[in-house]
Task: structure prediction
Amino acid sequence: MSRTNNKARLPANPTLKEINWYKKQINWGELPPFYHLVASSISESEGVLHHGFDNAVKRLLDKRNWNLELLGGYEDDNGVIFCERKPLIKLHQVFTDRGFELWAFPMAKDTVIDSYIKDNRFMEFRVWDPHSMKLLLRFNQLHKFIPFYFERGDLADKALILHAHKVLHKIVAFLEKELNVVTLDGVSIKSFYQMCEKDARACSDEVDIARIMLGEDTKRD
Result:
């Protein structure tokens, strides 16, 4: 087990690898299980745009599953598909009992679809299967990790939360380029972070008042 490196520093815009390295330096060479769980899911989501394995994002972009007639599309002699328009998609951010998730919903005549539908002439996908296409990413237990940071976290924990926000922004920006994203709503990582920060500050203020009532020193570092 290595000793804590008090000279360890995070760069201005760290990668996940650099954040993990820093966490090890300030934690006796180890990654705590809770931190590792969150970091691993962020790393997995970060790879959806680069890795070759199948995922919900790639299913959304599969033009073979697009309703070409509705989108003004066609397939040329080389098997390449061209479309005049891109499918409409609504994105929803939500914190569930599993963590933070980004959901996708297609549209059909201004109606949001959240069930299995196949070969509907009003929907811009030939098949929509929520079980394999709705959940675009999940940051496991982020809903517990953010409050944990305000209770007893460190700089590496905060950097990991900020990196999750950056990964989400990168994936949303990619989807906005490749599809017609009409809305992005729900509870963002930033808003949830600010809510937890406000709650932590309120709790701290209550402790200070209690100390005053007890005649204790309320000076902070």
